Amino acid sequence: GAGVSQSPRYKVAKRGQDVALRCDPISGHVSLFWYQQALGQGPEFLTYFQNEAQLDKSGLPSDRFFAERPEGSVSTLKIQRTQQEDSAVYLCASSFGQISNQPQHFGDGTRLSIL
Amino acid sequence: AQSVSQHNHHVILSEAASLELGCNYSYGGTVNLFWYVQYPGQHLQLLLKYFSGDPLVKGIKGFEAEFIKSKFSFNLRKPSVQWSDTAEYFCAVTSGGATNKLIFGTGTLLAVQP
Questions:
Q1: Best of A5, A60, A98, A104 to disrupt the B interface by mutation (most B CBs within 10 Å)?
Q2: How far apart are CA A87 and CA A82, in angstroms?
Q3: For residue A32, which of A78, A79, A75 has the smallest C-alpha distance?
Q4: Residue A98 sits at the chain B interface (C-beta within 8 Å)
Q5: Would you call B101 and A33 a contact, using CB atoms and an 8 Å cutoff?
Q6: Beta bridge pairs of residue B15
């Protein structure tokens, strides 16, 4: 496709369940980012991949959050033992290169609700 | 740590009114600045960006922004808004270093009344 694709669009889970969110970046994009957007807030950085290498995971809020990009294209964000405070929209973005003036292209996000 | 402040959380304007949304950032070094827009039900889209050169940058749909280094500001402007400009607007800065992660403001929700 032409843009960043995320699935599912909506996910409802019970507290304590594990969830997996998928991101399919724009073909050929080297850099991939995950952000978390809470209600009424701007997106906040979670983690960054350059190809398959996870170069920055400083934004992951706890060790329950795990991300991977094994072949340098599709990425998965996994949240284990979900808690209510994990409810948010999770955004994926990709950019062509790894220099700072490359704009990031965003997907529609996955809205996660933890009951 | 870097931060971005957007002073207007909600703005309501009538069509044809002029728009200015404030954005201030806290970082003394070289910055790359962005405005993103999110229309209802759509994903974040790049409106305009500043990397270097002319501090007045023009984006899509008649928007422009001015980088004022001495004020650490990057305000968004449009001379005459339309109903279709109703959206949420986010100012963002890249952090520099190896990651180039975006640091966003909290956003401004703009409602344009016909």
A1: A104
A2: 9
A3: A75
A4: yes
A5: yes
A6: none
Query: What is the pairing mode between strands A105-106 and A10-13?
Result: unpaired
Quickly count: other Cβ atoms within 10 Å of residue B109's Cβ.
Answer: 15
CB contact (8 A) between residue B94 and residue A43:
no
Which residues of A, range 12-41, sit inside 8 Å of B by Cβ? 31, 33, 35, 40-41
Tens digit of pLDDT at every position of chain A (115 positions): 579 999 999 999 999 999 999 999 999 999 999 999 998 899 999 999 999 999 999 999 999 999 999 999 999 999 999 999 999 999 999 999 766 678 899 999 999 999 9
**In b/e form, how buried is each residue of B58-93, taking b as 16+ CB within 10 angstroms?**
ebeeebbbbbeeeebbbbbebeebeeebbbbbbbbb
Q: Which amino acid is at B7?
A: H
Please spell the DSSP secondary structure of chain B, one letter per residue. Answer: ---EE---SEEEEETT--EEE--EE--SS---EEEEEE-TTS--EEEEEE-SS-SEEE-GGG-EEEEEGGGTEEEEEESS--GGG-EEEEEEEE--TTT--EEE---EEEEEE-
Judge whether A10 is closer than 8 Å to chain B, CB to CB. Answer: no
Backbone φ, ψ for residue B60 (5° rounding)? -80, 160
* Contact call for B107 and A4, based on CB within 8 A: no
